[in-house]
Design goal:
Elements lengths: L2 H14 L11 E5 L2 E4 L4 E4 L2 H4 L8 H13 L12 H12 L3 E5 L2 H20 L7 E5 L8 H4 L5 H4 L9 E4 L4 H7 L4 E6 L15 H11 L3 E5 L21 E4 L11 E5 L20 H16 L2 H19 L4 E7 L2 E6 L6 H10 L2 E2 L1 E2 L4 E4 L7 H15 L1
Parallel strand pairs: 3-13, 5-6, 5-7, 7-8, 8-9
Antiparallel strand pairs: 1-2, 2-3, 4-10, 9-10, 11-12, 12-15, 14-15
Bound molecules: pyridoxal-5'-phosphate.
């Protein structure tokens, strides 16, 4: 394709698509692992990772095979019947992530909605909260998706503006503040929903023992600890679950679970929680359909077989240390865990958007999460060569 044809792609998408995204003006047409090519033949390294949906790297051959083989065998059946795929997938996910039961949905936001619903139902049926009084505690600057229920918890003006009336029953407290959590709990509190590391807020890493303390407080007060691991989970932070030491009551995963090819999410819990749902109480037409089950099952196997948690931990430590060494007065802070990294720009000397543009011109794909912070989330198995290539571009971009 030439430049005119590429501009046509952008023009058509802008003309016919709703404008709810401000995409950078490059048109991608193929990818392999960490490398992505645009329609002009320019090659980039993907340090954006589709918001952590592409943890395995693009077009992983085992994912492609799982997808194609399943598509040739059985596609969608709905949950009106059993399939020979779903049970084995749920069993594998539960065993790997240390839970008893799992409920499959498609997107992250749907899984969060499911967790809110199960928390309320558990509150009424098990904890004994008075009907319609259930309260769920969330954190300021959270990001849990885009549905009406979920944005009712948001503290972002842009996420909320124009969508009222909002869903009642939420209480917002500061992130990384256990004293506020203790204070916010009442007899009607059914759950505390939290991200182990706040991604969209700018890669905000809490104290090392924060989640364990939250778990203790929740346990003492008969409140469910619900952890949104949609972005942090499945190896991104160097662990299978960033909350693994806290042993949450409910864990939500999504994004990378689909191997980069299908939207699939899971809500996982101990017995006595998810089993408040009885047939007909909740569902999703595509939730857990055979293709999602086959692909997600393969994703979990790949994470283990390729030791992706260990790789993300090691590469992340190396990358953060090198970035900190390169950082000059234009960079305020480099932070993160594993390969979930935030680079905070000193906004007196420039903006995150400007740095993103410079990196793009150097052949690096990434995106700022706000005006100050760039998120780096390359594939978990990114090679040392590609990391060095990135560091070279980054070093000249901040000069
Ligand atoms: C992306 C994300 C979601 C929403 O997932 P979708 O698949 O976009 O609905 C929820 N929570 C967190 C922490 C996320 O990063």
């Amino acid at each position: 394709m030439n430049l005119a044809a590429e501009n046509t792609c952008i023009q058509i998408e802008s003309q016919w698509g709703a404008k709810n995204y401000a995409s950078l003006p490059i048109v991608l047409e193929r990818a392999r692992c960490a490398e992505v090519w645009d329609t002009l033949g320019n090659r980039y390294l993907d340090f954006m990772g589709a918001y952590s949906a592409a943890n395995l790297g693009h077009c992983h051959p085992r994912i492609t095979s799982a997808l194609i083989n399943q598509a040739l065998r059985l596609d969608v059946v709905s949950r009106a019947f059993y399939s020979d795929r779903l049970g084995l997938f749920l069993q594998k996910a539960c065993k790997l992530l240390g839970q008893d039961l799992a409920l499959p949905m498609n997107t992250g936001a749907e899984a969060v909605e499911t967790a809110l619903k199960v928390s309320r139902k558990w509150g009424y049926e098990v904890k004994g909260v008075e009907q319609n009084k259930a309260e769920i505690i969330c954190c300021s600057n959270n990001f849990h998706g885009r549905t009406i229920g979920v944005i009712s918890m948001s503290t972002s003006d842009q996420a909320r503006q124009g969508y009222g009336p909002y869903l009642p029953g939420f209480k917002c407290i500061p992130f990384n503040d256990t004293a506020e959590l203790e204070r916010a709990i009442t007899k009607n509190t059914v759950a505390f929903l939290v991200e182990p590391i706040q991604g969209e807020a700018g890669i905000i890493v809490p104290d090392a023992d924060y989640l364990e303390k939250c778990a203790r407080i929740c346990r003492e007060n008969n409140v469910l600890l619900v952890v949104d691991e949609i972005q942090t989970g499945l190896g991104r932070t160097g662990r299978l679950l960033e909350s693994e030491n806290a042993k949450a009551d409910v864990t939500i995963i999504g994004k990378s679970l689909g191997g980069g090819v299908v939207p699939v999410s899971l809500v996982l819990s101990r017995k006595g929680i998810l089993d408040v749902f009885k047939p007909g109480d909740h569902g999703s037409t595509f939730g857990g359909y055979p293709i999602a089950a086959a692909v997600a099952s393969e994703t979990l196997s790949i994470i283990e077989d390729e030791e992706l948690c260990e790789k993300a931990r090691q590469s992340g430590e190396y990358l953060i240390q090198k970035l900190q060494a390169i950082a000059n007065e234009t960079i305020k802070e480099v932070r993160g865990r594993g390969l979930m990294i935030g680079v905070e720009v000193n906004t007196q000397n420039g903006s995150a958007e400007a740095l993103v543009q410079k990196l793009l011109r150097g052949g690096i794909l990434c995106k700022n999460v706000n005006h100050a912070v760039i998120r780096l989330a390359p594939p978990l198995a990114i090679s040392r060569t590609h990391i060095e290539e990135f560091l070279n571009v980054f070093e000249s971009a901040v000069q």
